[in-house]
Amino acid sequence: MALSNSEEKKPSYFEIDIRLFRDAVRDIDFDLYLKLSEDNYAHVFSRATGLDYQRLSQYIAKKVRVLYAREEDKKKVDSFLSRPANDIFYDPDATVGEKVASLLNMTEQNMTEIFSQMDVPKETIVSTKKVINNYVHLLAEQPKTLATIIKLASHGDYLYYHSISTAILSLFISKASGQFNRRTLEMIGMGGFLHDIGCTQLPEHILDTEEDLDPSDWQLMRQHPKLGLSMIEGTPNIPDEVRYMVYQHHEEPGGNGYPNGIRSPVIYFPAKIVAIADAFGALITKRPHRPAYSVSDALRIIESEKGKFDAELVKVLVSIFERKRNAA
Ligand SMILES: [Fe+2]
Questions:
Q1: Residue 281, domain member (yes or no)
Q2: E strands within the chain?
Q3: Quick one: which of 258, 251, 257 has its CA closest to 273?
């Protein structure tokens, strides 16, 4: 005989600190719930869809402290939480695929935190450093994998993708120019990640517009280095060099850049690296108002814009993609 609803055995749940999921890999093999009231749980993340960092961050921002899982999934939850993404990245037994997946998950979670807040909390910077460290590690160990990451990340939102690609391209350019130690590389990676953070303060239509910006929108757009700087100004743990990169990445050696129109010798060198990585990464990406340029066309455009980029860095960028260009 079937049991009536009231006689059915109710599932029991246990609670888990929501913050534990921030450092974890994304795929889950259990379901997670929010408790709405006694005996009333809402299903929020499922084994089919995995964790969604944007929603996770929203819950944390709304002061949700715990999530719930079913008692029968306890073992799965424990083993999931015992394997943070960062550990997988450095696990000698993990496959390259697992490492890339864990790094992308860490990056996605990290970028979501960066882009969903008005200011950048200290903890977010700590995890940004961890993520950048892993990129630098990958650059040394398996540089080819980074190209795969650029492709994979292109499925995310433009700002998220653009920030990853700028960070990675900045690292490539720095490394190819052969003059930076590991600490500087980590800083440049962070500058690449954060350079457009001020864009999160701009009205959405400016980033998504299918047409060229009108003069008033341009004026707003030109505010983003300053907006970015003020977002990270009070954040401890961000080195001054990163602030320079955020503030100066649209300055041009010829003096026609913004916000201050300063000239080559005064522009911080890593900010010039981020500038060229930013422009090149944007050109090879499809935008609402134009298709993506091929690598060779993007290089041609960068080369033709005299005074806009550091001439030595243009050569470095070209040398990185030379073979690809010759093949095109
Ligand atoms: Fe920018």
A1: yes
A2: 13-17, 32-37, 40-45, 66-70
A3: 251
Q: How far is the CA of 142 from the centre of ligand 1 (A)?
A: 28
DSSP string, 194-229: HTTGGGGGS-HHHHH-SSPPPHHHHHHHTTHHHHHH
For the stretch 93-98, contacts whose Cβ atoms lie closer than 8 Å and that sit 24 or more positions apart, written own/partner, are 96/142, 96/145
pLDDT tens-digit readout, 248-293: 999 999 999 999 999 999 999 999 999 999 999 889 887 877 888 8
Residue 230 CA, ligand 1 centroid: distance in Å: 14
What's the CA-to-centroid distance between 148 and ligand 1, angstroms?
24
How far is ligand 1, taken at its centre, from the CA of residue 213, in Å?
15
Both 42 and 163 in one domain: the answer is: no
Residue 206: domain span: 86-327
Distance 164 CA to ligand 1 centre (A): 13
CA proximity to 76, closest of 13, 11, 29: 29
Q: How far is the CA of 237 from the centre of ligand 1 (A)?
A: 22
214 Cα: distance to centroid of ligand 1 (angstroms): 17
Q: Which residues pair with 69 in a beta bridge?
A: 14
65 and 153 co-located in one domain? no
CA of 54 from ligand 1 middle (Å) equals 23
E strands in 38-130: 40-45, 66-70
Q: What CATH number corresponds to the domain at position 153?
A: 1.10.3210.10
Instruction: Quote the number of domains for the chain.
Output: 2
CA of 249 to the centre of ligand 1 (A): 6
Are 152 and 22 found together in one domain?
Answer: no
DSSP three-state, residue 70: strand
How many angstroms separate the alpha carbon of residue 12 from the centre of ligand 1? Answer: 50
Q: pLDDT of 148-196, one tens digit each?
A: 666 656 555 777 778 888 998 898 899 888 877 888 888 898 899 889 9
310 and 197 within one domain: yes
68 with 104, same domain? Answer: no
* pTM for this predicted structure: 0.72
